[in-house]
Write a structure and sequence with these properties.
homodimer, 0% strand
Chain lengths: 217, 217
């Protein structure tokens, strides 16, 4: 009985890591669709989101079931509560990847990004994907040190966000309003993916230490 | 012992309702700061957010404590799990109100909104505030019917979002890139506040019925 319980608990964690990998792939593919104006790839990101949502429901139901039947305490309880919170982050990250793919689809056959906006956006995309990959490792290994480090990565994203705004608000911007709005929103989507990765890392800190890190603004 | 437990459980729900009211006030005041270019009001929204964050920590700690000590089952367990999820929505809604206030502060002494963007944005602000107020009632009364209705309100927000984009992408838009980006982002903040209100309503449906509503895209 206890053995089955621990297997089920471990399978929740394994699924959480697998869901984070799904989100990482969705982010990477959405970025590729955006930068190459690949409408089929964009469509595939959009239609694959249903699998991320299904996994959320599955993890939620199993976590809840374990809470209800096994009445776990201490670390196991914190793990299940953290899982219930992290799936909400992950579902939202999947939605944000879909938003990116939808911009690519909307502007097809054109490229959504004017060339002058590409370098900073590519950096934002790379940092976001890297932070999702780090979140996956952090959850898999309950790695508090790496979790604290991820918060510092987020400062890089913050600098990139400001650089992105400088580009589209500069006098040299000659692409008009529509691409500017696309670029502003795309920057925001990547930034939010990064924020959710940080939020997952913070839940791992709480999970392991029982301490709330100071709130993110 | 059981009586104290039920008091504590009810106090978590009462605090959740109070936190929703705080968010409603933050949203309303941020809107007022935005439409009247009131920088002091904007500052007060920004500095009051710490109280929303504190309440999150307090609700989280107490919910977790009840889960750990009382090992609740069925409805009580679902209530506590829902509370842990809803505080994450509410904290984020508070952050979004802060984002709105920060746009007002950044553009002060100017008005951030060009007059032509004001009517639709005012409707978005009103719908968002109304949806937060509805979420508060829905949580207080665990009202599944009102929760299902809130999802329909969200369609109004969707129409307003499209109208907002039409304004800033129309040929008549003569305010340039910066106000267009402000208007696009502000619209998104109100839309996200509304999305989180719907997410809270969906958690009430799960709480009362035990069924997951179909995922929001």
């Amino acid at each position: 009985m206890r053995e089955l319980y621990h297997e089920q608990l471990e399978s929740v964690v394994a699924d959480l890591v697998a869901m984070t990998e799904q989100v990482k792939v969705a982010t990477r593919r959405a970025t590729q669709a955006l930068f190459t104006a690949d409408v089929e790839l964009a469509e595939s990101v959009i239609s694959a989101d249903v699998h991320i949502d299904e996994r959320r429901v599955s993890i939620e139901d199993r976590s809840f079931d374990l809470l209800a039947r096994q009445q776990p305490v201490a670390g196991d309880l914190r793990m299940l509560v953290a899982a219930l919170r992290m799936v909400a982050d992950l579902e939202r990250m999947g939605d944000l990847a879909v938003h990116i793919a939808k911009v690519a689809r909307l502007r097809y056959p054109d490229h959504a990004l004017p060339p002058s906006a590409e370098p900073v956006m590519k950096e934002m995309a790379d940092v976001a994907e890297m932070m999702v990959a780090a979140a996956s490792e952090i959850v898999a290994n309950r790695d508090v040190e790496a979790a604290a480090e991820l918060e510092r990565e987020d400062e890089i994203m913050d600098r990139l966000r400001r650089a992105n705004f400088r580009t589209l608000l500069s006098d040299g911007w000659e692409h008009g309003v529509e691409p500017a709005v696309d670029v502003a929103l795309l920057g925001r989507y990547y930034e939010r993916i990064a924020d959710h990765a940080v939020s997952m890392a913070r839940r791992v800190i709480y999970l392991v230490t029982g301490e709330h890190p100071a709130p993110v603004s």
